[in-house]
Write a structure and sequence with these properties.
- The protein is about 45% helix and about 20% strand.
- It has about 200 residues and is an alpha+beta fold.
- The protein has 2 domains: about 80 residues, Ubiquitin-like (UB roll); about 80 residues, Helix Hairpins, CATH 1.10.287.1080.
- The protein has a 4-stranded mixed β-sheet, covered by helices on one side. The protein has a two-stranded antiparallel ribbon with strand order 3-4.
- A hairpin with a 5-residue loop joins strand 1 and strand 2.
- The chain starts with 9 loop residues before the first strand and ends with a helix.
- The model has no long low-confidence stretch (mean pLDDT about 95).
């Protein structure tokens, strides 16, 4: 049973279904939760504006709901979504991009992290950034770089040099993610396609 607080709200943690990345925290009332279930996209209650709002309605950065979970006390929601674009108004994929405390830093760098950085460069250009330079040169140039890096991977693979393969595949992954970002394609869309193929056997 869903337990709303005295103001009729319940906190909703939004998590990317594919990567497990926590994207944002919002608040829902009974009506917004109902609309979330009915429409399949996230709806929230703005405590500041005192009105319902649909995530991505104006920006296009919608969140397609995959699953809604209720915590053990029934007073918090965990909503797994497929995120289109970014979740944060700052241009970052996640609203939780500011580190507050780290006792023992662990390496959590992955393709989603790299994509977040690339997307941030696209939305917030930085002088001297190679990524920004690629975006400025356009999708044709980016596509050619993907082709060039693919050849480098092939050559490294033929040589059988593991270190070189790792190096060249890293370049290929990076440039492929730049291509995806340039075409407004999220990694989630690739995961969805792979999942579709997997289910087809």
């Amino acid at each position: 049973m869903v337990k709303f607080d005295k103001e009729g709200l319940i906190p909703a943690i939004i998590q990317e279904a594919s990567s497990g990345k926590v994207l944002m925290l919002g608040y829902m009332n009974e009506e917004s939760l109902k609309k979330t279930v009915e429409t399949g996209t996230t709806w929230f209650w703005s405590r500041e504006r005192k009105k319902l709002w649909n995530k991505g309605e104006t920006s296009g950065n919608i969140q397609k709901v995959k699953e809604i979970r209720l915590d053990c006390d029934g007073d918090a929601l965990l909503i797994l979504v497929a995120q289109t674009g970014v979740a944060c108004h700052t241009g970052n994929l996640s609203c939780f991009f500011q580190n507050f405390y780290t006792k023992e830093p662990a390496s959590t760098f992955n393709l989603e992290t790299l994509y977040d950085i690339i997307l941030s460069r696209k939305l917030n250009p930085v002088d001297g950034s190679y990524t920004c330079k690629l975006f400025k040169e356009g999708v044709e140039r980016i596509s050619k770089k993907v082709g060039e890096e693919s050849v480098e991977v092939i050559l490294a693979g033929i040589k059988g040099d593991k270190d070189e393969v790792i190096y060249e595949v890293s370049d290929l992954f990076y440039h492929t993610l730049v291509l995806l970002a340039s075409l407004d394609i999220s990694p989630q869309e690739i995961y969805n396609e792979l999942d579709r193929r997997h289910k087809e056997g």
